[in-house]
Amino acid sequence: MAHTYTPGLKVVERTVIRKRRILPLKGEVLVERGAAVRAEDVVAKTDLPGKVYPINVANILGIVPEDIEHFMLVKPGGVVEKDKPIAMTKGLWGFFKSSCFTPAEGTIENVSKVTGQVLVRGEPLPVSVDAYIDGIVVEVIENEGVVVEAQGAFVQGIFGVGGEACGVIRMVCSSPKEIMDRGSVPDDCKGQILVGGSLVTSDATKRAIELGAVGIVVGGLADQDLRDFLGYDIGVAITGSEQLGVTLVITEGFGEINMANSTFEILKSNEGRRASINGATQIRAGVLRPEVVIPLDASEVKQRTETEEKPSVGLQVGSEIRAIREPYFGRLGKVIALPPELRVLETESRVRVLEVEFDDGSKTVLPRANVEMIEH
Amino acid sequence: MTEIVPEKVRSILATDCGSTTTKAILIEKRDGEYRLIVRGEAPTTVEAPFEDVTMGALNAIAEVEELADRKLLDGSQIISPQTDAKTGVDIYISTSSAGGGLQMMVAAVVKSMTVESAQRAALGAGAIVMDAIASNDGRLAHEKIERIRQLRPDMILLAGGIDGGTVSHVVEMSELIGAADPRPRLGMSYRLPVIYAGNKDARAEIKQRLGEKTDLSIVDNLRPVLERENLIPARNKIHDLFMEHVMAQAPGYKKLMAWTDAPIMPTPGAVGKIIEAIAKLENIQVVGVDIGGATTDIFSVFSGVFNRTVSANLGMSYSVSNVLAEAGLENLMRWIPFDIDERDLRNRIKNKMIRPTTIPQSLQELIIEQAIAREALRLAFEHHKSLAVGLKGVQQERTISDAFSQSRSGETLVNLMALDMLVGSGGILSHAPRRHQAAVMLIDAFQPEGITRLAVDSIFMMPQLGVLSTLHPTAATEVFDKDCLIHLGTCIAPRGSGKPGAPCMQVSADLPNGEHREISLSLGEMYLLEAKVGETIQLTVNPHRGFDVGAGAGKSLAAKVSGGVVGVILDARGRPIALPADKPERVRKFQEWHKALSVYPEYSF
CB distance B142–A24 less than 8 Å? Predict the structure, then answer.
C-alpha cells in the first residue's frame, strides 16, 4: 500500500466542544439557554414507561384467545398488584378454577384476542440527564434536552471502557514512558481522573477503583487485565456501558506503549482542573472514540479560540513514526528512506516498505502499513 | 451513466471499497480477450478524518496507474471513455462494504416468531443484524430506546403482527423507535430509513408515529399469517434503500455513484452472483466464502438452492477480537504450532482490531493470523449451516405447529460429502503468500469430506467481477476463468474417526508424469500428490473400515481428480479432524503436516 493514515484521533490544547444532552423520551428541560452548568447538574428529566411484562393468559388458563376477555378480572387500563390474579376460569361448579397472576404491579396495557397475550406495564421510571461537561447551555431542544458548549482541551483515545464521569485531572506518572503501578495510585485519589504513562497494571486499576478514582487515562493496557476486570472478552468494539467502577481511556493501544508526548503534555498542563471523561468507543466506522474534555473556566474564556489543526502531510523521509505492529510494536523512529519498489518480507509477501532508524540508532525495514505518523 | 456497447469496451476499471482496504483492478481487451492487467490497493477512507470513500478509491486507482503505466486520472476525475491505448478507461464500476457493510436493526413483536422472520429478511438481503428488538426480549423500554440510539443502524426493519391481528404491540415498537429518534450511522443530514413490514392494519398508526421522524417505507407483511413467511418485498426494499439512502449518505458515495457506469453493489451481493454462476455453469455443489475485515460471508449452492449468510463480527481486522471472544482462546491456540504467551497474543489481537490496516511482518505473525482465520471461517460456516435452511429466498411454508415449536425447519442443506468445490476469497485467503497456506486454511476450517476441489480468488477480485457480470458478462467470464479463479487442487478426505495411527485409506494413483504410486495412510497423516493446473490424476481410494470417501463406509471409489497450484491433498486426519490433545504431540503433527504440504517451508519450528 502506498499510503498510511493515522486513525484520526483529535488531541488539541484548545477547541470548542459541544455536547448534545438528550433524554431518551420527551420530558422536561430544567435549564435555560445561556445558563452556566456544571457537569453533574441535571439538565433534563422525564419518566420512562415502565417495563412490559407479557403474560400468555390464554396458554396458562387453557382457553382460546378469542374468549380471553371473558376471563379477565382487570380490564385494559386497570391497575394490578404484584402476585394478584388478573384472569380466572370459572371452573366446574365453582371448583377447579385456574388463575393467572401478574409478576409485577402496574397497569394492564393490552389484552390480545389474537395471541391471548396480556401486557402489564410496570411503574414509570424517573430518568434524568446531566450536563456531562462544565459549560454554557447554548441551545435548548424543547422537551428533549440541551446543547452544552465549552472551550478547553480535548483528547480522544483509541479505545475505552466505562461511561461518563467527571473529576479532577491528576498526573500519577512523571513521564509518558512510566508504568502506572499500584504504588503510583495516591491514597487521596477519590473523585479524580488519574493520568499514567505507558501502561496501567491490573493492581493499579484495582487500587484506583478501591480508592474511588473516577477515571484512568493511560497509553496502554493489557487485554488480559481488561478481560479479568470485565469477566468477558470484548469482541465487538462497542463499549461504554461496562460497570468497571472506573472509566478507562487508552490513548495508544494494548500492551505497554508510551503515551504520545503531545497527549501527555496537554494533560499535564491541565493538572488540577476538572475534566469529563467517557470511555464509550465504537471502532467500526469511527463514529465514537473515548474522550477526555477539560473545559476552561468561564472567566478564562475571553473569546472563542481554537487551536488550528495542522493539515496532514504524507510520509516523507524525516517523518517521525511509531511502529504499530509486532515485532517492533510501539517503537519510535524516523523514516530514512521510502523505496518505491515492493520488497519481500519474511512472510514471503511483497509489500511497500520504508526504512526506519529507531531512537536507539538501530535501523530496520518496516511495511508502510505498519507505521503511524507522529504529528506535532 | 452512459450507454455501454459491450463489443466496443476496451478497458474496465473496477474498485471494491472494503471496510479496511479499497481494491482497484484494471482489465484490458488484448488480442481479442479480456484479461486482468494490474491491481492496486489503498486504505479505505470512509472514516474520520477523511470521511470520503473516493479518496481511498483514487489512491487505489493511482497505484493502478503507476503499476500499469497508464493515465487514468485527471486530477480527481476518472478519464472515461478511453482516449488512447495509454489513457482512460471505457467502464468504471464499484462494489462496497465500507464502514462495515449494511448494518441493520430489526424490531418486531415476538422474539421467536416475527423477529426471526425479520432477521431472515435482513440477512438474506446481505445486511448485518446488529440487534433484534422484541416486545418480549426482557429489556426495559428505555433500554431498547438507548440501544437503538447507541447502535446507530443504517436502517431499521419493523415487523410484527399477522395481517388482521393485534396492532398494539407493533405500534408500541414504533413508539420506541420514534422515541429513540435514531440518527443514521453515516451522515447526519438525512432521516433514518425504516421499513415497515408488519400487520397491514397498523399502517396508519405506524405512519402517524414514524412518518415524520424517519424515512418510512411500507411493504407487505413479512409474516401475513402465522404459518407463512413472505420475505421478498422486505428484502427488495432493503436493497433499494441501501442504494438510495445508505450508499448515497456514506461519506463520498454520492461522488462515487456519479462516477460509476453501473449501480454500486454491496460486496456480498456481488460475490454471491459469481458463486451462483459457478454452480450453474458447472452444475455442481459449491461453497464460497469471502472473509473480510469486519464480516465473513458464506455462500452455498446445494441442489440448486442458493443461500447466503453474513456473519457480522467475524473478520480479520475490525472483528478480529470477536473471533477470539467467540471461538475462545483454546480453540485459537490449537492452530498455533509454537509457544506464545497468552497475554501477548491477546494484546496482538486487540491491536489489530484498533489498527486494522496493519499486516504481518514476521512469519510467526502470519501463522497467528492464519490460525485466527481458521476459527473465523469455522464459526462463520457453523452459522451458515444453521441458517442455510431458513434462508431459501423464496416464500417459505411452515406449518402452524412448526411456528409454535419455534424449531428450525429441517436439516441444513449443507452436505460436505456432496460438496464439489470450495472457493475462498478475501484478503487472508487471496493474499496468503503461499497458495498452500490458503488450501490448508480452507481444509482445516471447512473440513470437506470425500473429494472436493479447492480454489481461491487470485487477488480478491470476485466482488468486482460480480458487478461486472451485470454490465459486461463476457468480460466478467473471461477474466474469471483466466485470471480470477486459482485452482488449488483437490482434497481427498475420508469421513470417520478412530485411534491415531490406525489404518485410514489406501490410494492407487496414476500421476500425470506416468508414474504409478501406491500410498497407504494412517489416521493423522497427510500427503501431497503433484499435479499442476490442467492436469488430472486417475486414482482409486480404498478407505479402511469405518471410513467413507463418498461411496459408503469402507467402499472403494475410483475418480479422476484435478490438480492445481498446490496439487492433490490426501487428508487422513479423519472427519471431524481430531487434533492431538497433548500439546507437544500436536506441535509435532503440525510440523509433519506443514512439511508434507509445504505450508511454511521457511519456518524452523
Answer: yes
A253 and B344 within 8 Å at the Cβ level: the answer is no
Chain centre distance of CA B61: 24
pLDDT digits (tens, 9 = 90+) for B150-172: 787 889 999 998 898 878 788 88
| Cβ-based neighbours of A161, under 8 Å, separated by 6 or more | A226, A230, A234, A239, A240, A242, A244, A247, A248, A279, A281
pTM (two decimals)? 0.79
Please tell us whether the domain made up of B103-249 is placed in CATH 3.30.565.60: no
CA torsion through residues A182, A185, A187, A190, sign: negative
Amino acid at B57: A
Kindly report, as residue ranges, where domains of CATH 3.30.420.40 are found in chain B. 6-96
**Using the beta-carbon criterion (under 8 Å), do B434 and A348 form an inter-chain contact?**
yes
* A50 in contact with chain B, both atoms CB, cutoff 8 A: yes
Q: Which residue has the cell 504513562?
A: A197
Query: ipTM higher than 0.95?
Result: no
Query: A with B: how many residue pairs have Cβ under 8 Å apart?
Result: 203
Three-state SS sequence of A80-92: ECCCCEEEECCCE
User: Among A3, A4, A287, whose Cβ lies nearest the Cβ of B152?
Assistant: A287
Phi-psi region of B489 (alpha: psi -120 to 50; beta: other; left: phi over 0): left
Maximum pairwise Cα distance, chain B? 78
Give B25's strand partners: B14, B39
Determine the Cα–Cα distance for residues A327 and B402; give it in Å rounded to an integer: 55
Q: To which CATH superfamily is domain B6-96 assigned?
A: ATPase, nucleotide binding domain (3.30.420.40)
Q: Report CB contact under 8 Å: A235, B321.
A: yes
Residue to test with chain B: of A230, A241, A254, most B Cβ within 10 A: A254
Based on its alpha-carbon atoms, the radius of gyration of chain B, rounded to whole angstroms, reads 25
How many Cα atoms are found within 13 Å in the side-chain-facing hemisphere of B373? 28
**DSSP output for A252-277:** EEESS-PPPHHHHHHHHHTTTSEEEE
C-alpha distance from B295 to closest chain A C-alpha (Å): 11
pLDDT per position as a tens digit, B46-96: 766 677 889 999 999 999 998 999 999 998 889 989 999 899 999 999 988
